[in-house]
Amino acid sequence: MKDQATPSSTITGQTWDTAAYAANGRFVATLAKGVVELLAPRPGEHILDLGCGDGALTEELADAGAIVTGVDASAAMVEAARARGLRIDHHDATALPYESQFDAVFSNAALHWIRNAPAVLAGVHRALRPGGRFVVEMGGHGNIAAIRVALQAVMAGYGIDAEETAASLFASPAFYSRLLEAAGFRIESIDLIPRPTPLPSGMEVWLNTFRNGVLDRLAGADRAQAVARTLELLRPVLCDSDGNWIADYVRLRFRAIRD
């Protein structure tokens, strides 16, 4: 993880500021009630929280009585989660080291940041005990479509491909079903769920929190100008007459079983 914004022509993916995430991204865990219910954690079972971030949701799973291990690729997020007194490992999701250790693997709002899904799914399959469940919510096909189109148009003016830089994977149910089945999972349910999401802190804060991996390619006045132009494009479709911003989220939620 980069600790500060620096122009780059090679870095792709998202970078995380834990303080900004805690202040402006808490809705990610707050809106996870549906996927937690699908997981249905039970006291005493071993659960891996894949892409646990700062541990807010991991803590909730542990409070339900499960024996939870969190794992994240961001050193800063791992540190923040460990500060909650949780057991947290520092590994990339494409290189999980676990072997038949967990009754369930859970992931919320993490797997859309990783394009190499087959490597992730292979590691999850290894980590689960036979019959173990894999329960996920992630960005799905059409997720933040307006935001992505606007940012792509603006960043193109600076010679930057925002979609390639973000390196996200927003899959359809059909596409992800094929990946799951190829990895040895039996799908119990998989759904695409539109979820327009209010942004109390506004779109500018959202962009600087959740698309800073793209915006970090610019510095100073160029970055500020790019954000302003993106807001101008988005205002007619994602901001109401009272100035309230809504992000056009679409979630992919599934439950699958390791046979």
Instruction: Give the overall average pLDDT.
Output: 90
Low-confidence stretches: 1-11
Shape: globular
What would you say the CATH architecture is?
3-Layer(aba) Sandwich
The separation of the N and C termini measures 36 Å
SSE run: HHHEHEHEEHEHHHEHHHE
Tell me the total number of β-strands.
7
Structural class: alpha/beta
Approximately how much beta-strand content do the residues carry? 15-25%
**Count of DSSP-assigned helices:** 12
- Main sheet? 7 strands, mixed
The CATH superfamily label reads Vaccinia Virus protein VP39
Text of the CATH class:
Alpha Beta
Helix amount:
25-40%
Structurally, the number of domains stands at 1
> What's the Cα radius of gyration?
18 Å
At CATH level 3, the topology is Rossmann fold
Give the strand order, joined by hyphens, for the main sheet: 3-2-1-4-5-7-6
